[in-house]
Specification:
The protein has seven helices and eight strands; from the N terminus they run ββαββαααββαββαα. It has 138 residues and is α+β, with helices and mostly antiparallel strands. The protein has a six-stranded antiparallel beta sheet with strand order 1-7-8-4-3-5. It has a two-stranded antiparallel sheet with strand order 2-6. The radius of gyration is 16 Å and the shape is globular. The two termini are 21 Å apart.
Amino acid sequence: MTGTYEHSIDAKGRLFIPAKLREELGVTFYLAMGVDECLAIYPQETWNRFTEKFASLPMSQSAAMRPLFANASKCELDSQGRIVIPQKLRKYAGLEKAAVIIGVNDRAEIWSAETWNAREEEEMTPEKMKACLAALGF
């Protein structure tokens, strides 16, 4: 998944998912806390790989993942291409009105527009891009 999409969250906590991402996400997908101050959207196939890896962890390590699974949400789009973002997840990511959805390879992320814009400005430098490509072996 790739691209950046700006949308608003309505008063009922609904967010429009762009058509290009809807195609890649499929009919059913999962919304969960992201690694940073964002939410992650996983297509079914990616979520399945994620849960298989989780299932292979010893119980002592898997306990740390409880909040992730307790607050994950199975999503299906409404007739207008929107999902409802639960209040706890909106709070976790600091989502109020303006949101940015970005494609991140095998998942998408939802950011508050303010947080994403600040992070993008900080991260979008030639030096950071060189370091990123070097880490990938380019």
